């Protein structure tokens, strides 16, 4: 902790007192002097609330890329790629009812596992799906029929996790929906309940209403540190864990974009996917492209030191943050593969100097909590 406090003294001496203490608080969280070596090096984590629990891999295969915009998905190749990820120990998959064929692909995949792998291997596979309903009246029958569709598509009798999203907080129907989902959990149709893109205020309201939430999926990266400013504190008080996405920013946090000048046409890779376009907007909200290049170079220096890639460092940094249980790494199933780099994240051990170096560059950008709002506010 002494080196963390030294970094805080530097911040305090270079800022106004009020700003300095705020930045120091963030730095102490981001420099992560709160986790044991055993916790940091764990390959799996248990999400818990009361009697509800689910063991997931800390690196989760994100399946947003199956929804279109990343290339045509061949079902057979995609399922084979899912098997390859699972065989490599990457056994948790995140999807949604609105990610194109994602739930169907999981159904095909889980049947391959049932046929071709031993029962103990099947037990390790976890499918985390989302329900993103239209803002209609949340009746018990409507909720039940919606979840029945996911059960059928994924070909399971019980969902390992159902993560719930809601567009409009002024419509309190989200509480009705969650209470019906909790009933389905009691019936055994859902094993654990999570949220996606809920802010701190609404998470607290949901917990106060007795809904047994185990996790909240939020955007979190080396530039988007909003979850560490409000959300993580509530999570530490309640035991709710964070699952992060956007952690490699659709591929922007990679060697591919290092030393690239986007102002020169055709001089480098194009922003040709929905995720690259989305996270370039986050870069613009956080700071300039030149500052982003400083961040990439910092990550590259650390990656070279450890013999890994920039994305591995970027994900490990976020995994080291308070209350983060797991991070999503998007998979372009059957189109490209980064299994080796992804597995390297789980054995990577960033030292305090690595963490401080990244934090210092990250904090040179704008405070996104002020610029955008709390977790998920960009969707409302």
TrEMBL record:
Phylogenetic classification of the source organism: Eukaryota, Viridiplantae, Streptophyta, Embryophyta, Tracheophyta
GO molecular function annotation: oxidoreductase activity
The protein's name in its UniProt record: Putative oxidoreductase
Listed PANTHER family: NADP-DEPENDENT OXIDOREDUCTASE DOMAIN-CONTAINING PROTEIN, PROTEIN TAS
Species of provenance: Dendrobium catenatum
Domain (NADP-dependent oxidoreductase) ranges: 58-361
InterPro entries (UniProt xref): AKR (IPR020471), NAD(P)_OxRdtase_dom_sf (IPR036812), NADP_OxRdtase_dom (IPR023210)
Domain of life: Eukaryota
